[in-house]
Design a protein that fits this description.
Blueprint: E1 2-7, H1 11-20, E2 28-34, H2 41-55, E3 62-64, H3 78-81, H4 104-114, E4 119-123, H5 128-136, E5 144-150, H6 164-168, H7 170-177, E6 183-186, H8 188-191, E7 195-196, H9 198-207, H10 210-230, E8 235-236, H11 240-247, E9 252-261, E10 272-275, E11 286-292, H12 294-307
The structure holds beta-D-ribofuranose (BDR) and calcium ion.
Beta-D-ribofuranose is lined by residues 10, 12-13, 38, 77, 80, 124-125, 150, 157, 163-165, 238-239.
Length: 311
């Protein structure tokens, strides 16, 4: 299955990239596109390139995208991801290569128009690039298999009502959710069930391969940030859920529901309004992830990390 990873790495975005490129992944990564989100897009791009270096992913183009949301000013999440966006692990000072000389929106359009089979888009940051691509070239819709995204939820982590990725660019999210393309949504309701803990970190360290060691460093920082900021007993590896699902579609359960994006509310800007009881009578537009098989999730996660020691 061909995928484009549209991201803002970001600790959990980095874990998602690492899972997608692992030895057990059936995914062919067409490109990694970056967007302003956790930190400024330039930093997110550098992080994506450096993560590629750590895992030896040198053949996949990294492409920089939108520098800010469609309407609002940018907001960043330095308190969770640190000043670089990927604080914690030792990273190369400079990446071994640069992003390709194209805008991510044009890259996404070009790859979709040229595609000989539908491509799945996997956004794990604000939806700015995806919305811009849909607006610039609506013909791409027919070649999008599905949009498998991390964002939203029936509660928030940036405001009481809104999750970070959707809040940062709710106007973009509205375009995506109203596009008619099937959306599969991993929101906080499910991602908060997937907590990496100090046991996860220890198990990764014991695997003894450089990539599992790197992920263990990433998660150490991330767990501490969630402890400090939200008093959580672990770090929800939000973005990783999208890739674990694409590797094994039997792990998560979904409800097919209508999701509307709030772009006006005084207290609810950026909320994903999930109609779980069908009270609006609107046609479902989203597969909304609700639960997961924890044992299977962690077993796939572990296998993916072990595969880096077998290369
Ligand atoms: C989302 O926000 C970012 O901080 C994470 O990378 C994730 O995509 C969680 O709300
Ligand atoms: Ca992210």
């Amino acid at each position: 299955m061909k995928v484009i990873l549209d991201c803002d790495p970001g600790h959990d975005d980095a874990v998602a990239i690492i899972l997608a490129a692992s030895g057990i992944s059936p995914l062919e990564i067409v490109g990694i596109t970056t967007v302003a989100g956790n930190v400024q897009v330039e930093k997110n791009t550098l992080n994506a390139l450096k993560v590629c270096d750590v895992i030896g992913l040198d053949h996949v183009p990294v492409v920089q995208g939108a520098t800010r949301p469609l309407v609002k000013e940018a907001e960043i999440a330095e308190e969770i991801h640190g000043e670089t966006g990927l604080d914690g692990p030792q990273l190369p000072n400079e990446p071994s290569r640069q992003a390709i000389d194209q805008h991510a929106v044009d890259f996404i359009i070009e790859k979709l128009l040229q595609a000989d089979e539908p491509i799945t888009l996997v956004p794990t940051g604000p939806l700015t690039n995806i919305a811009l691509a849909l607006v610039k070239e609506p013909k791409i819709k027919q070649n999008i298999q599905e949009i498998v995204l991390m964002g939203g939820g029936t509660f928030g982590n940036w405001t009481p009502a809104a999750e970070f990725n959707i809040y940062v660019d709710a106007e973009a999210a509205k375009i995506v959710f109203e596009s008619g393309i099937p959306v599969r949504m991993f929101g906080l309701d499910v991602t908060h069930q997937v907590l990496a803990t100090t046991e996860t970190v220890d198990a990764l360290r014991k695997m003894g391969n450089p990539v599992s060691g790197f992920v263990s460093d990433l998660l150490t920082f991330f767990i501490q940030a969630y402890q400090d900021h939200f008093d959580f007993p672990g770090g929800p590896i939000h973005d990783a859920c999208t890739i674990i699902h694409l590797i094994d579609p039997d792990i998560f359960t979904f409800e097919h529901v209508h999701v509307a994006i709030e772009t006006n509310g005084e207290h609810t800007y950026g909320m994903t309004v999930v109609d779980r009881l069908g009270v609006t009578g609107q046609e479902p537009n989203t597969y909304f992830a609700t639960t997961l098989d924890h044992e299977k999730f962690w077993s796939v996660f572990k296998e993916a990390m072990v595969s880096y020691g077998e290369r």
